Amino acid sequence: xxxxSDAGSALEAAARPVAxxxxxxEIADEVRAVRVDIAQKAFTIGQLVDLDTPxxxxxxxxxxxxSGKESWSAPNMAAHAHASVNSSxxxxxxxxxxxxxxxxxxxxxxxxxxxxxxxxxxxxxWSSGAGSEWTISNAGRSALEAGTxxxxxxxxxxxxxxxxxxxxxALNNFERGNYEVAVFAAMKEVEVALREAAGFGPDxxxxxxxxxxxxxxxGSFVISAETPxxxxxxxxxxxxxxxxxKNPSSHRTVEYSDPDEAADIVHLADLLLxxxxxxxxxxxxxxxxxxxxxx
Length: 295
Prior knowledge:
Elements: H1 7-12, H2 29-32, E1 35-38, E2 41-44, H3 45-49, H4 53-67, H5 74-88, H6 95-117, E3 121-123, E4 134-136, H7 138-146, H8 150-158, H9 169-175, H10 179-198, H11 206-214, H12 228-251, H13 259-294
Antiparallel strand pairs: 1-2, 3-4
Domain Conserved hypothetical protein CHP02391: 161-276
Protein name: TIGR02391 family protein
Pfam family, one: Hypoth_Ymh
């Protein structure tokens, strides 16, 4: 079965060392005006090189969808693109045309690599070998319906080293586009972890839980810090997070139209969980040192 790693040989021939955006100023005006078909959709070279990578990937995805073909390979897409240039603009010659020899495959490589890495393209079931065929995945169809790459970029932010407590409910719901549930689940995990660390029962939750656990002087799980002001800061940080991002979803529907914002809130929960983990580890180490001293 073809995997994402198989894309290397399929895209290698199309790759070049410098990203296409890095050579915009070097592209001749004649080349920028050249029309080229990418997956049978017409663009100018200038339109393509002016796009950042996510926007370029989305344009290629739309073109693949609109072509009606079940799948495309990078080499075939590049061959079709070159054929469209040669057939429609036979007068383009000399050095500008030589630029196209590396530029067109580079654009296709960059866009398709982003689509594959983001899970918007998957290997076609009938494909194998270096000329791998790629087809639009369910995630790709969802991105087409949404008309934006924001969800893809936000999901990618969350896929890197997220706290284990967040990988199931929070991350899975985020990937389905259930941003409110993802945010609520993430902050709920913070609450559960804090309750466990502070030694409280299920009757403690929300503001009362955070206050009773972290309040300086009386809390059962005051976060270690250099100064009392910093310890108070941790109390306010946890209070603000739980009050602003968990409590509202407990009482009403909260809409998160921006997936990037939802991802940032999940990352905040990730940070708070790591603060709790660090404090638990510090206390365990201190207890071990104390036991050694008494022995």
